[in-house]
Amino acid sequence: DAGVIQSPRHEVTEMGQEVTLRCKPISGHDYLFWYRQTMMRGLELLIYFNNNVPIDDSGMPEDRFSAKMPNASFSTLKIQPSEPRDSAVYFCASSTTRPRSTDTQYFGPGTRLTVL
Amino acid sequence: AQSVTQLDSQVPVFEEAPVELRCNYSSSVSVYLFWYVQYPNQGLQLLLKYLSGSTLVKGINGFEAEFNKSQTSFHLRKPSVHISDTAEYFCAVTPAGGTSYGKLTFGQGTILTVHP
């Protein structure tokens, strides 16, 4: 299995621009998570999906952030407009409860976002 | 809600010495506990997890952890470290069932640096 795939690996953009981060979870996994990692705040859960449905988005910082999961094999995290304080590493992770729960989240390599 | 406290932000140690990375948690419900490792510029990788049963859990790369319910701790240990163990280590918890199942709460991380 290729593992969780994230793209792009690095993104540099200017303040005010729209940024879209992409994630392909492990095939067959029914949970998908988006995290943000910064030096100041550590690892924060932004949002997670179960069977493509958002379950908890309480970690999404503000309305500038949105996430979608149109199908079981693809998710996006969008920031519009971006701000310098959004600079961070964004991780996607997936897990499964089928055929029985493994409770293990598998992380992608992350997208390092820099907003100038 | 759950919270995780990793008591040491940095732990320097010499090669072949033993190491303990400390983790305490707080929760009003039963939890599952995890240790993840993050090597530089990579995503997180599961080291070990406690779901139920024996309180001593063995993981990959010679690491083990002990769940202590009375002290709400889940400390990570290795009897003899290698240079390659240099990384950041994260303790995490998730509710054992319920509507928040699958939602990981991470500690702030402990940077383990192994010196020759």
Report on the structure:
- The complex is a heterodimer of chains A (116) and B (116).
- By secondary structure, chain A is mainly β.
- Chain A contains no helices and eleven strands.
- Chain A has strands at residues 5-7, 10-13, 19-24, 31-38, 42-50, 53-56, 65-71, 74-79, 88-95, 106-107, 111-115.
- In chain A, the strands form two sheets. In chain A, strands 2, 4, 5, 6, 9, 10 and 11 form a seven-stranded mixed sheet that branches. In chain A, strands 1-3-8-7 form a four-stranded antiparallel sheet, with no helix packed on it.
- Chain A is globular.
- The model of chain A has no long low-confidence stretch (mean pLDDT 92).
- Helix content of chain B is 0%, strand content 53%.
- Chain B is mainly β and 116 residues long.
- In chain B, a hairpin with a 5-residue loop joins strand 7 and strand 8 (64-68).
- In chain B, the strands form three sheets. In chain B, strands 2, 5, 6, 10, 11 and 12 form a six-stranded mixed sheet that branches. A four-stranded antiparallel sheet of chain B has the order 3-9-8-7, with no helix packed on it. Chain B has a two-stranded antiparallel ribbon with strand order 1-4.
- The mean pLDDT of chain B is 92.
- The chains are: A mainly beta (116), B mainly beta (116).
- Chains A and B meet through strand 5, strand 9 and strand 10 of A and strand 5, strand 6 and strand 11 of B.
